[in-house]
Amino acid sequence: MSDNRAECTQTYADNHPKKVLMNSVKKITTNICILGGGPAGYVAAIRASQLGAEVVLIEEKELGGVCLHAGCIPTKALLKTAETAAAIKRSKEFGIESRIEGINWNSAEGRKDKVVKNLAAGVVQLLDAKGITVINAGAPPLPTKKYWFRHRKKQSK
After folding, report:
1. Domain segments of the chain: what residues?
2. pTM for this prediction
3. According to the model, what pLDDT value does residue 111 have?
């Protein structure tokens, strides 16, 4: 694959497996450079690595993307709380006497956060195990096979 390699140039990267920290510009040469660490990006990176490619994955925010951190997964975790409450309300149909005293949404939110944290850690672990270099940066595409990355500081919560 060495004849089909792309150049990646970055100025700074932070907080991911195989972190590349530097104060000056460094050129990285790789087989595949994937922009975006959401479900499509990280799965593509893992598959490319399984097929023998050297892979660099660039994610501006958080690995797992919106789906993992703000969309699909958090929504489904909270939906499970509502489904469980609904099942308890119908439990008499099954001969079970029960009632709901209330729903502690702070606890439900804590469970949701734990689910997201565990899945996000799994994504990081998978990428690291496959030898994928992750760069936390924005990367607007250029008309050639070259990309420039600028470090994005993480937002504190």
Report:
1. 2-151
2. 0.71
3. 96
